[in-house]
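Our preliminary data section would be incomplete without showing what the modeling component actually yields. Below, a chain of 265 amino acids is followed by its predicted structure, encoded as tokens that our downstream tools consume directly.
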Amino acid sequence: MATFMRHSDNKAFQLEKDEAIYKLSKSSTMHELTRSWINQAAAFRYTYLFSWLDRPIIQFPQDIVAMQELIWQVKPDLIIETGIAHGGSLIFSASMLTLLDVCEAIEEGQPYDPAASRRKVVGIDIEIRPHNRAAIERHPLYPRIQMIEGSSIDPAVVDQVWAIAKKHQKILVCLDSNHTHDHVLAELQAYAPLVSVGSYCVVFDTVIEDMPAGSFPDRPWDKGNNPKTAVWAFLKDHPEFEIDKSIQHKLLITVAPDGYLKKTK
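Predicted structure:
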């Protein structure tokens, strides 16, 4: 770590980071520790312990940081999210899009004008509970957010999202609703085509496949029937996407192994 801090050359710093990520990817010890930690943490509902700007986000902190890096890299003008829950992820995405606008205004020497921004977040959920809707609508970042209530794979909902997407150029998609194989595969088929080249479709909770069978006794998903199996099926017919393994190798602790899908062509 101290070696990293001494570098003033950005290229050399990046090379050392890449080398560290590669070593992590090859460390069986680190991977075994990670699997054990994730399995143990699930018993404490660890992902429920965090919030973003006062809204529960229900993610590992590592994935939140990874999403920050991706949003800064891609600079999307539209983020599509399936699954709203308490709204923390919507608020997170809205805050990142606001930061992009502020930074661009500073770089251009112009005042920041929120009314002039085209950047927005669209969130879809089959049920938006009234108390969550009210809390999201009260949030200062709500003007950037559009919520759609309905199944994310309902053709009418898909058509509505596609109509919104036509007004945008750089699009990033996050899938985090029903985690069964069939549902996630249908979401991938519906929304992945909207992802712009160089951007990502992030499929959360692929880690279900790596956890012991029966880890979710009150849910319809399990090992063999989850987002990761849907990703594998989707990629067989979609060579324009590839798994960005560098992200999971760096994070180790992530709910989305094999879930960071980059559109390359």
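The longest strand covers residues 120-125. Residues 49-212+228-263 form a domain with the Rossmann fold fold (CATH 3.40.50.150). Preliminary results of this kind motivate Aim 1 of the renewal.
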